[in-house]
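Input sequence (152 aa), recorded before submission:
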Amino acid sequence: MAQRRSGAARRLAEEDVRHLLAVATLLAAAGAQASDDCGAMLQAPHAMRAQGQGYTVAFVPQPAPLASGRHFALDVAVCAAPGAALPKSLRVDADMPAHRHGMNYRATVAARDAGRYRAEGLMLHMPGRWRFIFDLALDGRVARLTHEVDVP
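Predicted structure, token format:
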């Protein structure tokens, strides 16, 4: 049979909930700030972002803007949530989900320094909606992040 909580226990439980909500709000704000800051090292005010699984990938095409039928590179920054390790490596690809095909070229990715990469040899050979795919090699698993763009 359920027992009624005393007034003191009820107040303590309400206070615990308020503290948990405050901590959750702070953590969410810190995560949003970290994802906003990710890519600052790319020195590009309009970096695109893919987020998920505790990671943010910020990337900037070189040359910009993206255009179909033109080779380009991506400068990439990978940011991890507090306490998470940076990936051991990064793989970059792109496809057109609506057309069920990918690029005609395979990108090569070179690490620059901690969390920074350069992917070269990309070409989006036709106009339309493309999805960038970033595979982050972690300890024993791969985190896949994606970002879609419309390419003229």
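Checked by second reader. DSSP finds one helix and nine strands in the chain.
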